[in-house]
Amino acid sequence: MKDLFSIGEVSRYQKISKQTLIFYDKVGLFRPAYVDPNNGYRYYSASQIDYLDTILIMKKIGFSLKEIKEHMEHYNIDSSLIAFRKQIAAIDRQIQELRLIRSRVLHRCEQMEASKNERENGGAAFVEEVEAQYILFREVKAPYTLKEISISTKQCFADAFQEQLPIFFQSGVMVPLRHIREGRFTEAVTAFLPIEKTDKVPNIRRLPAGTCAAVYHVGDYLSIGRSYQKLLDFCEANSLNILSDSYEFCINDYLTSHDENEYITKIVFYVEEREKQGKPRP
After folding, report:
1. Separation CA 43–CA 36 (nearest Å)
2. Cα 282 from Cα 273, distance rounded (Å)
3. N or C: more exposed end of the chain, with fewer CB within 10 A?
4. Would you give per-residue pLDDT tens digits along the chain (282 residues)?
């Protein structure tokens, strides 16, 4: 039709699907100038192309379709300036959140790379100095099977996502030293997620800085006893007193591999040399 563009032409010019244009029509955001009563074909005027440009630009900036529709009902330079300033603030919040997410994903990558290097070096136990860190925790209910551990871990993730807590996308468990001494290596009593310091929820615990003995366990979780024995033997051979229960950090798990043989768990005890006894247990 003269001076009108078909929906196909608008779709090609703007690189937008016909289905999207039809949807915009149905929600009242961008309606055609004319609809042929005989066949229902939609046609758009030249002036509407600028209007569609505005919609697509605002959508690219991050406005929702509802916000765009409300804004464009009666918009001028003043209302546009208010809307754009508001969107800049929203973009700044998104940038900050993405930076935090990036740092946590990078942290996970660095841990995975470090664990691979240790595995290639034979997986020997070692001593390291650790900085203070925080965990978001949930107690595991008896009888402390993998089922109860999984439930508590998922509750931690649910808490973190609901409250938008700054977790590190990693899980772990705490196993009492008593359980380990008795050969009950998989009976964890606490599930946790490493997290940045926050006071938004009460179930946050601080793990202090200190000297730790550690080992990387490679393989499925049920075989973790062999790595615990290696770590216990290492502490005994090096005259290290174990001061804490064990903290297990999942380095490579179901989030990053479907093969349980590739699972990597870092087992950590706080320790001290025997001639330096007397420090409090973390």
Report:
1. 8
2. 16
3. N
4. 678 999 999 999 999 999 999 999 999 999 999 999 999 999 999 889 889 999 999 999 999 999 999 999 889 999 999 999 999 999 999 999 899 889 888 988 888 887 777 666 667 999 999 999 999 999 999 999 999 999 999 999 999 999 999 999 899 999 999 999 999 999 999 999 999 999 999 999 999 999 999 999 999 999 999 999 999 999 999 999 999 999 999 998 887 888 888 899 999 999 999 876 555 556
- The two structure tokens encoding residue 117: 């290097």
Residue bearing tokens 């768990």: 265
Give the dihedral of Cα atoms 102, 107, 113, 114; nearest 10 deg.
170
- As a whole number of angstroms, the distance between CA 164 and CA 200 comes to 9
Calpha distance 167→276 (Å, rounded): 34
Residue owning tokens 């007193």: 241
